[in-house]
Amino acid sequence: MAIGAPGKEQFRDAIVELRNVHIIAAMQPLIDMRGEITANDEFKMRGGLDNTTRDHIKQHLQRCDKWRRVVTYNPDGEAIDEKIKKAVDPTNLINGAKYAGESTKDPLKMEEKPFGADDIQSAPGPLRQIPWSLDGDDENIPLNSRLNFRNGAGFLLLQSVDAAIVGWTRLESRHSTRFITPFDSMRIYQYYVQILEYLEIFTGDVNRVDFAAGVRPTEEPRGAENSPNMASELAGTSGVKDTK
User: Fold this and answer.
1) Whole-model pTM?
2) Are 188 and 153 spatial neighbours (Cβ–Cβ below 8 Å)?
3) In this structure, is residue 222 part of a structural domain?
């Protein structure tokens, strides 16, 4: 088991209770992306990831970054009194997010922030537990010791995702009820850029290598002693006892 409290491992530094509901919302696509990584059979391949898997994970990363952007404090500068008039006018309808994707069918192209009222002080909210169990109890969020990653680049990618999950919970903005500061937003952006760089540098068809020895000693059906170059290998014996 990796260093840390038993059952905690790579999430041992995560703060699981915070006030900021927007942080919890922005963490959801990151948890989804982690699930795609741990459940994808490509990450069993020691030779690396193909272009299809790399591009699929990139789509999840773009979704993660979209949510980082929309929860970042960014008032639009419209006069408060005008906003109040619109909010209380009984003839108006509530307006949600407006996306350029309404015409392009691309949900990642956003024209306006879906969360408004950045420039109006909100009431303080209660502490909330994040809705994911990071201590190993959730079978859908397996810890390092439960994984059998044969892909070195994939395991590196997973650890960068887990670092981002922990990073979200440790932002100073966790004490606020809504939004994160632009500085905290850039801190999370650094995590996402690192994930993207790992995908670009270490994965894809061009980075795949061949492993002729497809079976590791621990995977041998007759045990590790059957593998070449092992000190316990029994050369020249059939394993059948002489009955004479």
Assistant:
1) 0.76
2) no
3) no
